[in-house]
């Protein structure tokens, strides 16, 4: 348990960090929301806000946090969320129309199952490829802006070292991300 004064001092520490970084990273107009979650993470939805977990705010060095915020800012600036959704829908409808003439000998029921499974799989595969590409683009943009803000070039590398090497559909491997922001 934390006393309320300890709790509020942690809170004001977090807010101060964000204020400082907003200024230094030229993100003054960006709405950055704090999420009570101890995982080191940040994310964007389609509301043009950056959501950053308390786990990231409390545990990362300032240059790592700067890289993370710039990465998220790049997702917003490049419209990655909308683009990903648009591509997924386009591929799904393309695949569905391609499939409509296939398996004409199958019963309507099987045909329906095949089609919906393949359309679903195509959607997942597309999302995965597109979002991995967007992750790398956001990393490259973040790396560039990090250096422009005078943070040096280690923030991203340090941050990636904290991530485990598990496989993810939406994110490229840690090794690939480390390499892509190397000079
Ligand atoms: Zn990302």
Summarize the topology:
Layout: H1 4-24, E1 32-35, E2 42-44, E3 50-53, H2 54-59, H3 62-77, H4 80-99, H5 108-148, H6 155-162, H7 174-180
Parallel strand pairs: 1-3
Antiparallel strand pairs: 2-3
Total strands: 3
Tell me the number of structural domains. 1
Terminal Cα separation, in Å?
A: 45 Å
Oligomer: single chain
Shape: elongated
- Rounded to the nearest angstrom, the radius of gyration is 21 Å
Q: Write down the overall mean pLDDT.
A: 89
Q: What is the helix/strand order?
A: HEEEHHHHHH
Total number of helices: 7
Q: For the largest sheet, list the strands in their spatial order.
A: 1-3-2
- Poorly predicted regions are none
Ions, cofactors, ligands: which are bound? zinc ion
- Beta content comes to 5-15%
Main beta-sheet strand count, sense and barrel state: 3 strands, mixed
